[in-house]
Specification:
There is one protein chain. The model has no long low-confidence stretch (mean pLDDT 79). The longest helix is centred in the middle third of the chain and has 13 residues. By secondary structure, the protein is an alpha+beta fold. The two termini are 35 Å apart. 37% of the residues lie in helices and 16% in strands. The chain has a domain of 66 residues.
């Protein structure tokens, strides 16, 4: 996903932040585009429903946003994974 992948979902959430904070405090929201798809007791349930209702049926190359009502919408930052293969000499000379 690109940096703009969830921009519409985040903007929609921020526009309705106070309403959702009051109405759904502590519950998880499933948002796709400019639409609140559902409200859930736990994050796993919200993600499972997101997969069923959004990802499999109507994404058109787009994802969905799941977050706890009342918390700031902070996009997840993808970090590259760095790996290193150890050789026998590494055991003798650790760095």
């Amino acid at each position: 996903m690109t940096d703009k992948a969830l921009a519409e979902e985040i903007a929609f959430y921020e526009e309705h932040f106070e309403e959702y904070r009051r109405k759904y405090a502590g519950r998880y929201l499933l948002i796709h585009g400019a639409e609140l798809i559902g409200v859930y007791q736990d994050e796993l349930e919200a993600n499972c429903d997101g997969y069923r209702q959004v990802w499999r049926t109507r994404t058109e190359g787009r994802g969905y946003l799941v977050l706890k009502a009342g918390e700031p919408a902070v996009p997840t930052v993808a970090m590259p994974v760095v790996t290193r293969t150890l050789s026998p000499s590494d055991a003798e000379n650790p760095t």
